[in-house]
Structure formats: structure tokens, C-alpha cells
What we know:
This protein has helices spanning about 5-15, 20-30, 35-55, 65-75, 90-145, and strands spanning about 150-155, 165-170, 175-180, 190-195, 200-205, 215-220, 230-235, 250-255. With about 260 residues, the chain is of the alpha+beta class. Strands 5-4-7-8-1-2-3-6 form an eight-stranded antiparallel β-sheet.
Amino acid sequence: MSHEPYAELASGYALTALAEDERARFESHLQAGCPECEALVRAYVEALVGVAAELPRTAPPPGVRARLLERVAADPARRAPRPVRRRWVWPALATAALAAAAAVLVYLGTTVTELRREAADRAREAATLRAEVARQRELLALLGAPDTRAIALSGLAPSPGARGRMWWNGRRAAGYFVASGLPAPPAGKTYQLWAVAGGTPISAGTFPVGPGGEAAVPVGPLAGAATAEVFAVTLEPAGGRPAPSGPMYLAGKTG
């Protein structure tokens, strides 16, 4: 063989990354005497030690370092270079090469783990964003539909200054409700929105209010609410009720 293939093996030998047959062939070449390859390996080991010294000193996730070191120890191709007869590499350098390789592997393993975690976080964020975009498109389509009506809800005795508005599409039995001026509910209480169709109240869910008593609530589709005549807001125990039981704060008729 020409000298070039052996020179190409020098970096893998320093990294303890050669297959067993390649390492045996390379060590035979060194035993035959090759100052150039000896110098290459020594330079690669020193460079590897330098790289390991420059790596960020961040603790890897639990178990990463131990698993990588176990793999290094178990894989014959990753063990420290064996000193050959000419003792071209001394034990301290071989030990340094193994330690540096292990440090690089730990760092790479940690980096890959972090990148995978970051990629998973970005994928979740993208999925959330896609869902929000789809929801906004549905809302715009609902508000822009020619058969969507705006229904005003007036404040009643518990909070006469409160106001509400329902954009309601009977064909879709869905809408969008906003309110302002609602007082903060007492502890253990929540506001609940109702659609009343044929005299039967249908729950459109509970909702919180902001610091200014504001609320924005997507509604429906609600089964049985296509012909709703009234929308109302009551104060109910936390979690809501299947039928109104508390005082009514807002109400408005569709006709």
C-alpha cells in the first residue's frame, strides 16, 4: 500500500475510532517505522486534547455521560491506542487521547440531546401556532358571514354597568361573545354563558374575566341552540352548572 491510506487512518487512530482490522493494520505500519504517521497521530491527539479543553463546562443531562463512557469502554474500536514496540506514543498521551475523546463524545451527546429537546419544543410551538391560526381563520369566517348577527347584552341589577355582545350565526349554532364591566367573581364562583332556545337554557361554558372585567369567549357549535332567542350570563359555583342557578348579570334577545 502507498503511504497515503495510512495517513488517512491517523486521525481515526487518535480518536480511537478505527475498526479492529484497520487499527491492527495501522499499528503494523507504525511498528515497521513511520515517523510521519507517528507525528500525525501525536498532532491529532494534542489537537483533540486542546478541543476537549475548550469545550463549554456545562453539566450533561443525567445519565448521558455514564452511558457514553460505557459505550466507549465496551467498544474495542474506541479503546485507547495500544503502545507498539517502538513506543511511538507513551501511556500518558494514550490516556489523554481517551479522556479527550470521551469528553468530546459527552459534549456531542449533550449537544444532540439539547438540540432534540429544542426541536421538540419548536415543533410543539409550531403546532400551537397552526392551531391558533386555524382558530382565527374560523373566527374571521364566522364574523364575516352574511348570516352572522350582532346581539347586544345589557347589564342587569347585580352589575348594571356591564355590557356584552354576541356575534351569533344560527346556521352554524356558533358565535363569539365579548363582555366588559363585569365585576371579579367571588371565590368559588364563575361566570357562565347561556343560550336559551325554546325556553331551554343551553350552557355555552364558563369563562374568566380580566382585570377590567373583560371577557372574550368562542362559542359552540352548541347542539340545539340554532334557534336561540336569548343569551345570558349568570354567576354560578366554580365549574358551572347544567342549568342556571345564580343571579343573572347580562341578558339580550336575538329578535
